[in-house]
Amino acid sequence: MEPKTPATSKPEYDLSRSHEAFLRACKVIPGGVNSPARAFGAVGGEPPFMARAEGAYLYDIDGHQYIDYIGSWGPMIFGHAHPTVRHAVVEALDHGSSFGAPTTREVDIAEAVVAAVPSIEKVRFVSSGTEATMSAIRVARGVTGRNKIVKMTGHYHGHVDSLLVQAGSAATTLGFPNSPGVTPGAIEDTILCPFNDVSAVAAAFERFPEQVAAVILEPVAGNMGLVPPRPGYLEQIRELTRKHGVMLVFDEVMTGFRLAFGGAQERFAIDPDMTALGKIIGGGLPAAAYGAKSAVMDFVSPAGPIYQAGTLSGNPLAMAAGLATVGMLRESPPYERLEAISARLEDGLRRAASDAKVPHVVQRVGSMLTLFFNQGPVHDYEDAKRSDTALFGRFFWEMLARGVYLPCSQFEAAFVSAAHTDADIDHTVDAARDALRAIVG
Ligand SMILES: Cc1ncc(COP(=O)(O)O)c(C=O)c1O
Ligand SMILES: NCC(=O)CCC(=O)O
């Protein structure tokens, strides 16, 4: 079937094949999906099922083409099915897909991470961002001999029990910040603070003197929509944690290799004690990592006593995809262009929303952005929750029908890739203008 070219005027939009697939899926998969974030719970309706993806585009089984701003929720910084990544994975596959024994490719990618991220001297590879943050917390507790963790409301660190409290992403969307099955014991050592509020963290340290092992945060929050740190916030948190002997853990699963080659910590010149990486580091295959100075990482088994393991950790295919992606980021950095096209999108969306006279704010850092239907500015979770999610849902569907695939929740960030062209951006802005006109008249 020839893909239908996206048009900004709303074409007939038929998802009957996806509907059939969804009915089949719902019989054998909970909610029809393998992760709630893709279920359209926040926008209503059923998701299109995807057939393939290439460059900046997704193609569904009903024959529609979409300009993709999810990028697999972050990994696809060069767009989909990039030939260099594909070639690396195919070559790796020809040599066997998993050995359960060390490979030189793991050393190559570890060296690449250490060279890219100054705060990391040693790094351990795992298979998901969830494992990376879970392990980082375990190490922080093991190294400090303290139990408590400070977490920011609206920040999402994967589905780790102790961190699944007032988490963002689909946990916000689905409205059960504390999931059934997470025991009171699992979260009793988790202290919640609002993002961008240094005094709340200082108060937590005073209330629990010498009991806090770590502060974990997304340096630029992407799981309650895009929320930048206020100027000076990260610096003050760094100073405060150092003063109290608390480890500062940056969850750079989203921001790592995206906001700069060295991640948000390079962009904001902060030296965290530990870093969780994911998404881009796996180049679209399942890989993630956590790293720190050697003095910390040497506590990790088998060098030290803190246990952490994984059958598929350092998987050859995932390492090949990650290495190819990191190599391209280093050899031909896309960051300047990403900044330029993302700014073009930001400006265009802002103009479209202003002209439609809907309350809005567009927040962006690098190639991550959110159009909030909210007066703004959005500094924390409480601000984000004031958004008009019903309006967002209508806008989302109007955009989808016009061939633009935005993240399917107000509480997610959109990702721009190096594969997006100026024409894609302009098409998106035209679609937004039409969509808002269709909604508000
Ligand atoms: C900031 C952040 N941390 C951790 C995770 C968890 O990663 P994963 O979904 O690979 O487990 C995600 C996304 O899911 C994330 O955005
Ligand atoms: N911002 C949300 C995610 O990145 C998670 C995607 C998923 O769990 O499917």
Automatic annotation (TrEMBL):
Protein name: Glutamate-1-semialdehyde 2,1-aminomutase
Alphabetized InterPro entries for the sequence: 4pyrrol_synth_GluAld_NH2Trfase, Aminotrans_3, Aminotrans_3_PPA_site, PyrdxlP-dep_Trfase, PyrdxlP-dep_Trfase_major, PyrdxlP-dep_Trfase_small
Gene3D superfamilies: Aspartate Aminotransferase, domain 1, Type I PLP-dependent aspartate aminotransferase-like (Major domain)
Subcellular location: Cytoplasm
Species whose genome carries this gene: Singulisphaera acidiphila (strain ATCC BAA-1392 / DSM 18658 / VKM B-2454 / MOB10)
An annotated GO cellular component: cytoplasm
Reaction equations catalysed: (S)-4-amino-5-oxopentanoate = 5-aminolevulinate
Alphabetic keyword roster: Cytoplasm, Isomerase, Porphyrin biosynthesis, Pyridoxal phosphate
